[in-house]
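Q: How would the C-alpha cells look for this protein?
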Amino acid sequence: MSLEAGNIVTGTVTGITNFGAFVKLPEGETGLVHISEVADTYVKDINNFLKVDQEVKVKVISVDEKGKIGLSIRQANPKPKPKDKPRSKPKKATGPSFEDKLSKFLKDSDERQQILKRSVESKRGGRGA
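A: Here is the predicted structure in C-alpha cell form.
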C-alpha cells in the first residue's frame, strides 16, 4: 500500500521537537506531525500530548515530490459532534403590540406639537407682532 493523502494509518512516535513530532509509518517511512495538527486544542508543549515510542493514528495530509510526508493526528480522529442546544420557545408578546406603541407615540407627538405651537404663538402675540 503506497501512502497517499487521505490515508489513515497507525505509526510510532520516533522523535519530538518544538515544532512537531516525527512518526514512523508501517512501510518504514517517517513523516512529520506539525504541532498545529496534534490536537484540536492549543498545544503549547507537545510533550504534554505525545511521548517517544507512543503508537498514534495519523492521517496522511500531504506527500511532496521530495518524499516529505505531512501527517495529522487531529484529522485522523473524528471530531465530537457539538451538543444540540435546546431550542428556546418563542417568547409570547407581553404588553402592548408594536401598532399600539406606534399609535400612542403619534398621539403624544401631535399633542406636544400643538402645545409647542400654542406656546410659540402666545410669545409672538405678547410682543405685539
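The chain is about 20% helix and 25% strand.

Helices lie at 98-126.

Upvote if useful.
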